Amino acid sequence: MKKNIYKQILGLLTISVCFSCCNFHNDHNIRISVKESSQQYRLHASYSRAKTNKVRSYINECIQPVSLNGNYVDITTTLDDNTRFYIKSLAGELLIKLNKTENSEASYHRIKKMCEGIKEVLKDEN
User: Fold this and answer.
1) For site-directed labelling of 81, which of 11, 62, 98, 99 has its Cα 20 to 30 A away?
2) Among residues 82, 105, 95, 84, which one has the least CA distance to residue 10?
3) Residue 20 vs residue 39, higher pLDDT
4) Measured CA distances, 10 to 4, 6, 51, 88 (Å)
5) CA–CA separation, 67 and 3 (whole Å)
6) Are 31 and 45 in contact (CB under 8 A)?
7) What integer pLDDT is reported at residue 69 of this predicted model?
8) How far apart are CA 126 and CA 124, in angstroms?
């Protein structure tokens, strides 16, 4: 019961953050926020909607054979190596969260490396 309330509060907070970022979103600005604690690694990015497909393609390369499809993704997924993470993606917005206590050190480094690559994809002018 307590877990469900926590998930609902976290979901509402995530939606609030996304909506507030969307209100100030500008196709020329890139905002990337990485927050890390002993329990969680989190990346939130706002960027040009035109870069959405590039970002999604890069993520799909990193998480093969799993892939993200569609214009809106809001899932917790488990990869073949048992890496489990949350991803929310819509045009110009991305949120990735990894619970460190539920994942191995290798899983943490895999997602962190993917997030570092996402930053590079967003910085690319093409």
Assistant:
1) 11
2) 95
3) 39
4) 10, 6, 27, 13
5) 28
6) yes
7) 86
8) 6
Spatial CA neighbour of 62 closest among 110, 6, 11: 110
User: Which alpha helices (DSSP H) does the chain contain, by range?
Assistant: 2-23, 52-62, 105-123
Average pLDDT over residues 33-41: 97
The strands making up 31-36's β-sheet, listed across from edge to edge, are 31-36, 40-46, 93-99, 84-90, 73-78
User: Does the pLDDT at position 121 exceed 60?
Assistant: yes
- How far apart CA 114 and CA 116 sit, in angstroms, is 5
Tokens 């093409």 found at: 126
Average pLDDT over every residue of 36-52: 96
The closest alpha carbon to 85, from 40, 116, 52, 45, belongs to 40
Rounded CA separation 114/108 (Å): 10
